[in-house]
Amino acid sequence: MIGKITGRIDYRAADHLLIDVRGVGYLVYCSDRTLAALPGVGEVVALYTDLVVREDLMQLFGFQTLVEKEWHRLLTSVQGVGAKASLAILGALGPDGVSRAIALGDWNAVKAARGVGPKIAQRVVLDLKDKAPGVMAMSGTLAQAQGEDPAEVIEKPVSRPARAAPAASSAQADALSALGNLGYGPGDAAGAVAQAAGDMPGADTPALIRAALKLLAPKG
């Protein structure tokens, strides 16, 4: 299983790029949003990857963050959603937008993705609604955790111990961070998380996020 690739971009196409990893070229398919955020040809890039193997097909899909990769894995677990549809949804909404749409039951936002009809959009929201808070609670990337720079990995392939991961933050702090990533203001997010924490003492991060989103959802 190929879980991550770090190398130089040889060329870019409409839906994929070729990454040279010390002389071996990998074709990696990405969403429109991910491709737009990547550097140009000749630059170093690091992507988390998911390898799909079938009888007549082998494809590698790339993601900037573990959250994006996890949403791709969950989206493709929904009946009728293949890798192409998953990348379309992630390209239209981004991982944070997918989290918010599914957590709030907003299937119209999912339907806005190219090639995704209302029935598939509704199925995505229904099948994954209980999993959204857990994905939203994920944060950080492998590079941040290890303090690695992609170019440094290419130029100096020397093994070194990873930096110590920061101490785990409280459930409320993690919930606040997740809501902030979704675009909620600090005041609104803090108020919702505080109310949720007061209503559910000892609740974990996914439970706090779920309750806070309900409090922040438009009324009426």
TrEMBL record:
Pfam families: HHH_5, RuvA_C, RuvA_N
Region (Domain I): 1-64
Gene3D superfamilies tied to this protein: 5' to 3' exonuclease, C-terminal subdomain (1.10.150.20), DNA helicase RuvA subunit, C-terminal domain (1.10.8.10), Nucleic acid-binding proteins (2.40.50.140)
Residue ranges of every copy of the Holliday junction DNA helicase RuvA C-terminal domain listed in the record: 171-217
Boundaries of every DNA helicase Holliday junction RuvA type domain copy: 1-62
Alphabetically ordered keywords of this record: Cytoplasm, DNA damage, DNA recombination, DNA repair, DNA-binding, Hydrolase
Main location (coarse class): cytoplasm
Renumbered residue ranges of the record's region Domain III: 169-220
HAMAP family, A to Z: DNA_HJ_migration_RuvA
Domains (record comment): Has three domains with a flexible linker between the domains II and III and assumes an 'L' shape. Domain III is highly mobile and contacts RuvB.
Family: Belongs to the RuvA family.
The protein, known as: Holliday junction branch migration complex subunit RuvA
Species, as recorded: Sulfitobacter porphyrae
Gene assigned in the entry: ruvA
